[in-house]
Amino acid sequence: MTEGKASFVCFDCRQILRRARGAVPVRCSRCGEMARFAGYKLRFPKRGDVAGWSRLRELIAKAAREEEADAARARVRARHALERRLKELEARPSSKDREREIRELRRRIEAAP
Asked: Among the four 74, 85, 98, 109, which has the fewest Cβ within 10 Å?
């Protein structure tokens, strides 16, 4: 099943662009600035509706902030899972495989953002 085209917007030109998401960074066809991802199903205001475009900008900015907060929470959860696993392994009797896994977990924890 193929994915539908996504909507991207340029707030400077109030231009709406439809492209496949993730292919390449989407630039506005009028001014050349980077367009912002707006989703797959969204109603857009008319070009002259300044208040509507302002609300749309706020809506997209809020969605981007929420997405970033979700990603940050996911990173913290992943790090805590690694730390819990490390603590479990350290409580077990020593073995070659245990030591190897402990080293690997410590490396992954150090590399985590």
From this structure: 74
Q: Is the pLDDT confidence value at 24 over 80?
A: no
Neighbours of 33 (CB within 10 A): 13
Contact between residue 113 and residue 76 where contact means Cβ atoms under 8 Å apart = no
Q: Give per-residue pLDDT as tens, 58-112.
A: 999 999 999 999 999 999 999 999 999 999 999 999 999 999 999 999 999 999 8
Token pair listed for 113: 């953002």
> Cα(51)–Cα(110) distance, rounded to whole angstroms?
47
Within 5-95, where are the H helices?
Answer: 50-91
Please report which confidence band the pLDDT of residue 21 belongs to, taking 50, 70 and 90 as the band edges. Answer: confident
Tokens standing for residue 112:
């985590």
Contacts of residue 9, Cβ cutoff 8 Å, sequence gap at least 6? 15, 16, 17, 35, 36, 38, 44, 56, 60
Q: Count the residues in the chain.
A: 113
* Tokens, residue 80: 């805590």
